[in-house]
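Q: I'm writing a short explainer about Probable 5-dehydro-4-deoxyglucarate dehydratase for a general audience and would like to include a description of its predicted shape. Could you first generate the structure from this sequence?
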Amino acid sequence: MTSAPLAARLNIPSGPLFFPVTAYGPDGSVDLDTYRAHVRRGVEAGAAAVFACCGTGEFHALTPEEFEECVRAAVEAAEGRVPVVAGAGYGTALAVRYARLAEAAGADGLLAMPPYLVVAGQEGLLRHYREIAAATSLPVVVYQRDNAVFTPETVVELARTDGIIGLKDGLGDLDLMQRIVSAVRSEVPGDFLYFNGLPTAEQTQLAYRALGVTLYSSAVFCFAPEIALAFHQALRSGDDSVVEKLLDGFYRPFVELRALGRGYAVALVKAGVRLRGLDVGEVRPPLHEPTEDHVKQLAEVIERGYALLEEAK
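A: Of course. Here's the predicted structure. Afterward I'll give you a sentence or two in plain language.
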């Protein structure tokens, strides 16, 4: 357990960043006991941080009350061993409310997701994230994707804002990311964190690493932590052979399967957790469950991934 600031704890991660799914019982209500078990297993498997109630955790589907309960449960399960970062989103007023709920639940930081529905200009986006950052004492990572896409100049202003410590990119525009990294490096002293937040980020992490972006989210860690950890360690140590074997034999087939259904970036991950023996329930609407055939293919992909680990020993 450490009291170091969140940025320092995230800067050189010992393992993947863990984005747990949210567990539901047979009646569809949040299952906090199973959720705690899921988070605890991830921490014990080597996660460097827990990002609770974010995209993979179906933030969009949780009531404020459920959100606070889940963040508190994640904090309890982590037991201070790794930081817990909670999602916050929707319009500014609701995002501020979620931020304050996360702080009350004991979170160490916030992942500020895109505002709901509207496509805003840079001035409005900057004001939105500054109000979230000012609402609590929690450090904030801003999530770029969908209707929250920033110019390098706006990210410079975000980096100058008290409480905002980083940018997570879910857009995938490498030219824009290079210009953002360069602008912030040139104009804002100190360390500003960058995260690869694309779905199944391992698939693109070699490209992001070339930009200096070493942090990435790992949804695969939810259901195959050994594979995600082996990839992370191989990437850090420069073991290109293991990286390429896992990309070719596991991650690419998984990404191709994920592309067969809308919402599979969450639903397929949740199916993977169930396949690995923890009943976290189904996804909530408007997401839908994978087909039976797709779940069967997922089981085969997971089996192949673990076989590759055995070969690499």
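A: For your explainer, you could say: The first strand starts at residue 17 and ends at 18.
Q: Perfect, that's easy to follow.
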